[in-house]
Write a structure and sequence with these properties.
Structural class: mainly alpha
Largest sheet: 3 strands, antiparallel
Helix content: over 70%
Distance between the termini: 91 Å
Mean pLDDT: 83
Radius of gyration: 30 Å
């Protein structure tokens, strides 16, 4: 059955219903005959059936975390409306233009139809559904409140994605501008400066120091530019390779990032927000605290905080209070520790954690906005120094000749 579901493709159809009214739609099926039979059972007389062609801009695109968040929200909405789980999968799957997402949803649907629980079905796809997602779905199924837990998962995914997008936006803009500045500077050094160099050779006078320095830099880039490009490309490639595969390197980078001025506090607040949001979601679902902390550790997005939370898990497992174990890591501000302490004492750890998450998510938003406002003039200054310095260096000899004349 799973194999049949995997073979389904989208068909576009047109026809007339029992009242003679023209209708059209889209169905997932293995072949045209199956679509025709399904339509007749619904009282539709098909007049045209064709396979949906993949556009150049859709098709088997990569499945993103945003796709999983939308899937969770759609599934929660369908279940809350009383639609059976298997039918909900069919509707959600048909609504996706991403063929990879359609394939994933139909594979999960086939497993559920075959008798697997939803938690078991999604656990077969750990690339897209982490332990946190699987544990919450399992808790929802056991408690008979799957739609409620899926809604919490969707909210959690949406909020964590919003934080990630905010941080990426803050870092992408200056990075893009600096890359453009580097490209423009390289073009000037390779193509524009040599033209001025030929012009200056006929002056018969000493060139200003700044001009000589820029000409020498241009000659160096032209002579050694290929080697430099290969060296930089290799260095960048090696950096990302080891960053992805070397845990000690990631630990070093995460620790250094937390100490970088301006950027460090933002990353710290983002990690605390993810910690609090995940803890709130897991605890509200009835997951035991020690087990919840295991999933919370991987959701912090920073190895320093991940190791800190795992240390907290071990201490909580021996009977220590969560607030005391948080203080022992020295990673959380006093306000967070005190709010968690109040939550433990009042039996409302989930709601208090949610308030911490709300506060720090707003802090991240404000910090990112301030960072963007701070970086804009700095970037303009860097551009002015780079490009303006080259232009001034080339015109200094001309100004000098003009003053002599």
């Amino acid at each position: 059955m799973a194999e049949t579901a995997m073979m389904k493709v989208p068909f576009l159809w047109e026809g007339t219903d029992r009242k003679g009214k023209k209708v059209k739609g889209k169905s997932m099926a293995g072949d045209e005959a199956t679509v025709r039979a399904d339509l007749r059972r619904q009282g539709v007389v098909p007049t045209r059936i064709r396979k949906q062609r993949k556009s150049l801009f859709s098709g088997s695109a990569k499945i993103t975390t945003g796709d999983i968040a939308i899937f969770s929200r759609q599934l929660a909405t369908m279940l809350a409306a009383g639609i059976p789980l298997v039918q909900a999968f069919e509707i959600v799957g048909m609504g996706h233009d991403n063929a990879s997402m359609q394939k994933l949803i139909m594979a999960i649907k086939a497993d559920v139809e075959g008798g697997s629980s939803l938690a078991e079905a999604i656990s077969k796809h750990p690339i897209y559904f982490d332990d946190l997602f699987v544990n919450l779905v399992e808790a929802g199924e056991q408690a008979g409140a799957l739609e409620t837990l899926l809604d919490k998962i969707a909210t959690y995914k949406e909020k964590t994605e919003a934080i990630k997008k905010k941080i990426k936006k803050a870092l992408t803009y200056p990075a893009a501008v600096l890359v453009v500045a580097f490209i423009v500077t390289t073009i000037l050094l390779i193509f524009v400066i040599p033209a001025f160099e030929d012009l200056f050779q006929g002056f018969g006078a000493d060139l200003p120091s700044l001009t000589r320095m820029v000409i020498e830099l241009s000659q160096f880039v032209r002579d050694k530019g290929g080697y430099i490009a290969v060296l930089i490309s290799g260095g960048v490639g090696a950096f990302f390779y080891f960053k992805k595969r070397s845990r000690p390197m990631r630990h070093f980078l995460d620790r250094v990032t937390l100490k970088v001025p301006v950027i460090g506090p933002i990353m710290q607040k983002a990690s605390i927000a993810r910690y609090a949001r995940t803890l709130s979601t897991m605890f509200a679902a009835g997951v035991p605290l020690v087990e919840a902390l295991q999933s919370v550790a991987g959701a912090t997005g920073n190895i320093v905080y991940e190791q800190g939370v795992l240390q907290m898990r071990d201490e909580v497992a021996t009977g220590q209070r969560l607030q005391q174990s948080m203080e022992n890591t020295d990673l959380f501000p006093n306000m967070v520790n005190q709010m968690i302490a109040v939550g433990e004492e009042s039996g409302s750890l989930d709601s208090m954690s949610a308030k911490v998450a709300d506060f720090y998510e707003e802090e991240v938003d404000n910090a990112v906005d301030n960072l963007s406002a701070l970086l804009e003039p700095m970037i303009m200054a860097i551009l002015g120094v780079l490009v303006g310095g080259l232009v001034v260096a080339m015109y200094l000899p001309i100004f000098k000749m003009g003053s002599v004349v």
